[in-house]
Every structure is written in C-alpha cells, then in structure tokens.
Amino acid sequence: MTRALNKLTAQAAKAAAPGKISDGGGLWLHKRDDGGSQWVLRVVVHGRRREMGLGGYPTVSLREAREAADKWRGMVRQGLDPIKERERQRREAERNIHLLKDIALDAFESRKAELKGDGTAGRWFSPLELHILPKLGKVPVADIDQRDIRDTLAPIWHTKADTARKAINRLGICLRHAAALGLDVDLQATDKAKALLGKTRHKPTNIPAMNWREVPAFYQSLNGGTGTELALRLLILTAVRSHPLRHLRLDQIDGDVWTIPGEAMKGRRDATPDFRVPLSREALAVIEQAKPFARDGFLFPGIRKGVISDMTMGKFMDRRGLEARPHGFRSSFRDWTAEATNTPREVAETCLGHTAGGAVERAYRRTDFIEQRHALMERWSATLKADNRKVVAISIAAEQ
After folding, report:
1. pLDDT tens digit string along 278-326?
2. What is the phi/psi pair of residue 387, to 5°?
3. pTM for this predicted structure
4. Which single residue of 67, 179, 287, 367 has CA 20 to 30 Å from 154?
5. 237: part of which helix (H) or strand (E)?
6. Can you list the positions of beta strands (E) in the chain?
7. Could you give the domains of the chain?
8. Could you tell me if 11 and 58 are in contact, meaning their C-beta atoms sit under 8 angstroms apart?
C-alpha cells in the first residue's frame, strides 16, 4: 500500500495533460479541458464509494492535498464518513463565530427603533448585560441550553424575580433573533429553563407612596427654591412620571398645557401619541420660578450636563427621612381622586396617562378629558396648598 502512495511529483502534476491522474491511496488530480484543476479523494465508507473535493490546484499544492488526504483517510479508518464529518466541523466553526454577546448586541440594534429614546437609557439591554452575558456571553448561541440558563439565573430567580424575568425574556428574544439569522438554536430553551427554575417565591412590592393626606405638608415644606424642590413640586402637581418631568422642555409648554412627546410616555401606542397635561395656576407659578435654572431648553437641568436625575429627587426625600419615592406621588394623587372626589374613573386614569376602557370603547372615545382634568388639577393644587386642618376636614368628610 505504501508503494502505491505519492506517485506524482510537483513537476508532473503541473505538466499533466487534461484527465484524471492518480497520486495513490485514492487521491486524484482532475485536470479539465478548460484549464481548471481539482483534487479529489475517493474512499469507501460502509461499503459505499464517496468522492470528496479537497480544493483546486495549484491553490492547494500537492503537499497540502496529500496532508488533507491523510487526515480524511484516518477518519475513514475510524468508521466516519469524511464528507459528513467535514460538514459537522464546519457547523461547529460557525457556532463558535456566533457568540451570544454578538447576537445580543445585534438583536438590540434591530430593536432600537421600538424603544424609548432608541434604547439610550439602557433598560432593555441592562438585564442581559448584568445577569446573562457575564456568564454566557462567550458561549456560542447554538450551544446554549436550558441548564446553562438555569445555572445563570438561579442566584437571582427568587431574590430578584422581576429582574430575572426581564433577563430571561430578553434572552428569549436573542434566541429568536439567532434563529431568524439561520442559526441552529433551541427556541424552547428559556421555557425549559423556567420549568427547571420553578415558580418564583419573591412577591413584588409596590413603590412606597405617601398617604395623600400627608402630601400637602410635604409639598408646602418644599420652599427652599432649589431646582430639586421645584421639580418635586411640579411632579406632585402634575402626577406625571419622573422621566417626562425631568426632560421637560420649555417649548413643550403652550399656555396652560404641557404636551409630552409620545416617545417619552411609557407604554403608549396611540395613533396620536403625544400626551397633554393640564397645568394649574400653581403649576404655572412653579414653572416660572424654575425658569432661571433652565439650560439648553430643559427646565430642570443637571448640575454639569443633561437633566436632573431621578436619584437626585429620591436622595432629597431620603435626607428628609422619608420612605416614599418620587414615583409614589402618582399613587397619592390617584388615592385622593378616589377618596376625596367623585371623579369618573376614566378621567382619573387619563390624568396618569393610563389607557382606560376596552379596545372598542377607546376606538369610539376620542377625547382626553382636558377640560375636566384642568378643573381636577386645580382642585388638587388647592388641596396641596391648604393648611393641615383643612386637609383633615376634607378627609373626615370623605370617610363619612
């Protein structure tokens, strides 16, 4: 057998006429009439003859062709089909190229247009970045299974249930993105992981909120004239979320109406997404007081750049020894409307920017109750400015 190998020389291979020339051991050089040449290895696997291309000549030299032939003949001796084995190795190499971290970034880029502010706040990507990618980021996405996901999220599955839920949902999106790219992934891996992890024991807690009867005293204590205090006052007066309040621009205010762009409103998908906020006389007075602080069009700028942070307002309340958070004033306002007024539910919910009613009802209702909300916000500001004795009297009357 050894004598039958390596029949060709480099010079003979170069000078050979068109046709098939054997180098021995099943290695052939096929020279075509058009001048092209191809190395072919013929082997018999499981009683079936297989022909395997090893590349073009002279790009693949005689020495390289012999080395490749030796490698694949070794596979045949192990009972493996060299063509199938080469395909398996090619797929393995492709899996190694498509790491989860790269797929996650590509999925994020594809979804930026759907996210508020093109995802610059980082809330979509951060669950992946903090809890998935440190352990699985360098793993080929096709290799990720439910056990990998379970082991990654087990430490936070019960202690940080909401964060873990977001992380596993984002990972599911990444796996679907990989499948759309043509990669061989297990689309059920996240569901299987949830089954392995079990039901979470963690019970979600609401954001701490101040009782509405205590809000007037707190509101009236915000009399230092600082930007943080004025931001908190306007937050309480309007019952909006922190993000649009902190990003309030002077050009969004027209008379006694503040129009929040739709992209700044959480979860809104309306055909006309902008949200109008009625401004009471007290709210307009607070805005006038805040104007000297304005910078780059923002009414509540940060100390160095950008806008005031939610943490700044939260820390102010911490220093006052309060458990309540800035976002909780929305709950305070909603409780006030329910306990101290006869405001229709759809009006109160619209004040908070919530979608009230079913799909059919919303399709026929085209109003945002701006006039009713104006009157309601004037009553709310009057409650906030009233002395404690009047507030107590109001609460007692509401309970009777």
Report:
1. 999 999 999 999 999 999 999 999 888 889 988 899 999 999 999 899 9
2. -75, 165
3. 0.54
4. 179
5. helix 227-238
6. 19-24, 27-31, 37-45, 48-56, 253-254, 257-260, 275-278
7. 2-89 (3.30.160.390), 98-197 (1.10.150.130), 215-399 (1.10.443.10)
8. no
